[in-house]
Amino acid sequence: MYISSLSLKDFRNYRDAFILFSRDLNIIYGNNAQGKTNIIEAIFLCASGRSHRTSKDSELVKINKNQFDISLEIVKGEGNKRIDIIYETGKKKMVKVNEIPVSRIGNLMGNLLAVIFSPEDILIIKEGPSQRRRFIDITISQIKPSYFYDLQQFSKILLQRNTLLKEIQFNRSLIETLDIWDEKLSETAARIMMVRNSFINELNIKSKDIHQKITSGCEVLDIKYKPSINIKNFNDAGSLKKELIDGLSKNRSIELKRCVTVVGPHRDDYDILINGLNLKIYGSQGQQRTAVLSLKLAEIEIIKSMIGENPVLLLDDVMSELDFERREFLLENIKNIQTFITCTEKDIFEKRKSEEVIFIHVEDGNVKIEK
């Protein structure tokens, strides 16, 4: 799988740009604040239906314009595909695959597989559980669109159940209806948590191996799933559902006081450990950065093993964050993967001209291709 071309119209600081890409290495370089990351953002938007920088589509429209258009061409084993995303201010964005509108973002998932690595990804370790859940949710949703649907369904059920918990404060007779919502919530939650458990186990195996190679065997990376309650059986949906219902029942008095649901995948977390110590608490900046690199490379391996194709790799301003050894390890391990790298200087990539490399110079939203 690789992206052959990208067209941008009134997207961020681009008025009208068309870029043909190399199927191997694409170096997007230029001074800061010229629009390099905007190219990465547009590609990721076509993969996931969302920006990695903002939740507001209106912020993606060029200043003094009211609409943006993105068109992206993909070459895949089963045939070429085209993704179009059109957004007009005040309206819902339109997504098309091969010129056919898709009614739900879930129908976009899996058409373009992309792994993104940016300096902000260190927040996976540094910040709270929501950042860690987001990382795995985006990856799993690309691999299993049904997982994305379950997440959406769970969010709706959770909102309705939390609303009911608030209403019970004024009408205690509504407590009787909580059992119905416990059943609905637990059924969807069980499917989500089974998939998460399986993914985290696989992520642990692959990232552990990669991390030992990066650190020459000096560090052991471990990832441990931490659901909101202790789960005994992740292998059977019926058993897991029952455990969740029991957990909700045991925590009912707490939920009625707080008016929020405290059991479920929305409270999931996972620990990232180095040599048995929590990386968030005890890890240095360098160790945290290296661990994220291991996670991202493991993410690529998981996608390839499950889908049979490499994802495209988006490296947004991360090369300067890595020392020479880490940078070389990364570049050596992404061969045969179409890669997009943003940077301010192209010098470190000049020696790779023997490979199929394209240099894309960006200046104030204008692109110039150099081979």
How would you characterize the largest beta sheet?
A: 6 strands, antiparallel
Count of beta strands = 15
Named CATH architecture of the largest domain: Up-down Bundle
* CATH-level-4 superfamily name of the largest domain: RecF/RecN/SMC, N-terminal domain
Mean pLDDT: 94
**Which sequence of SSEs, written as H and E, runs from N to C?**
EEEHEEEEEHHHHEHHEEHHEHEEE
Proportion in helices: 40-55%
* Overall domain count: 2
Radius of gyration: 22 Å
Strand order of the largest sheet: 2-1-4-5-6-7
Specify the overall morphology.
Answer: globular
Q: How big a fraction of the residues is strand? A: 15-25%
What does it look like?
The chain has 10 helices and 15 strands. With 371 residues, it is α/β, with parallel strands linked by helices. The chain has 2 domains: 176 residues, Rossmann fold, CATH 3.40.50.300; 182 residues, Glutathione S-transferase Yfyf (Class Pi), Chain A, domain 2 (Up-down Bundle). The protein has a 6-stranded antiparallel beta sheet with strand order 2-1-4-5-6-7, with helices on one face. Strand 10 and strand 11 form a beta hairpin. 38% of the residues are buried. The mean pLDDT is 94.
